[in-house]
Amino acid sequence: MKPSIRTDAFVKLDMKGHVLAVALLMLLSALRAFSCPYIIRDVGFALPRRPYHIYCLVKGGSPEEKRITTIFESVSAEVLRGSNVEAEVVEVGHLPASIRKQLGPIDLNDLPRAILISPEGKALVLPKVDYTSERSVRRQLEDVISSPKREEIKRHIVRNWCVVMLVEGTDRRENERAKEAILRASHQIVGAVTETGTMVRRKPYLTLLSPQDRGEERILLWSLGLLEGEGERPRAVVLFGRGQQIGPVIEGKGINDRSMLSLLYTLGKACACTTDTKLLSGPQIPLKWGDDIRGEVCRELGFDPENPVLKSTLAMLGLFVENPSACRATMGYVETPVEKLEKEENPTILLPLSASATDEVEAEPTMEEGVHIMLFTSVVMFLAVGIGALFLLIKRRRSL
């Protein structure tokens, strides 16, 4: 005798399977909405600053050095306010061993002398000035946080999608080829839609740094690791947020449409959980970020980068600056040299709109509104999951 098969059991199981599948999809959607509410480009304006340090080295103990300490601390507190640079007077004997190793033997007769330390621990000796003169100290500190090129970057980094700085080499033909590639990629990014559904409204801003500007922009180049290297080939750097580099420095023939688009598309990713964190751990240039540019961010992007709600949300997400190992990369070009990007498929990080898309679009949700939308969506999704679970429980009891 053949065993009887209860087809109704399969029907009930199939219904339960569908409900479970829907509930699981809702849960995953809620988790995604909660974990990735912002694009990288906008988050860059709200992330914590990684400070540089200026150490004014003294032998210690003399009355003149006490006067120098008073002047240096007073002027630095005023000039460096709102920047990502901190300053203090340090006796040379208290200097960390790692920095002393970089500097080599220190001539005590050459003190006082100031050095600039990057967040990564690199050291740069600053020109010697009269540290008993308030005017001289002020001028040196202002040179650390400001230069013509950095002021130009500040004027455009908020309004534009990002800033691309092309450090020109001595080969004029290569410079022009690299410039044209950057301009083509910049035009292509306009009208694309980010992972959060917002549109790229304005193209990246291109700024050129000629070989003649290198002396005046020494600190800017040093902060990006561009002081050393070949002078013949052009080099390109993409900056976003508060002057932070994204991705690697692209050199020579590597500067092409594909490599530039890959970095520009990355800025439209939803937070750091879906991209290679190595691309997001680049240096941040020494820069003063005052109330004027903070107000510009509020007007242009629709959120206050100093809002405590945003900062706490970013802390919960464990974004790339404070916790770069929290997420793992899933992008197609992870750990792929820039020169090999031509072999990849077309980027799918952002979805291009029609060719008629322009720079001006309708108002989009702000980041603060995004927080409320995110929380509301999460609550709705979790309620849906709960209702689905309750439905399953009722069906199960009725079948008993």
General description of the model:
By secondary structure, this protein is an alpha+beta fold. The protein folds into three domains: 55 residues; 95 residues, Glutaredoxin (3-Layer(aba) Sandwich); 205 residues, no CATH class. The protein is 42% helix and 12% strand. The chain contains twelve helices and ten strands. Strands 2-1-3-4 form a four-stranded mixed sheet, sandwiched between helices. Strands 7-5-8-9 form a four-stranded mixed sheet, sandwiched between helices. It has a two-stranded antiparallel sheet with strand order 6-10. Strand 3 and strand 4 form a beta hairpin. Helix 1 runs antiparallel to helix 12, helix 3 crosses helix 5 and helix 7 crosses helix 9. The longest helix has 33 residues. It is globular. The protein starts with 6 loop residues before the first helix and ends with a helix.
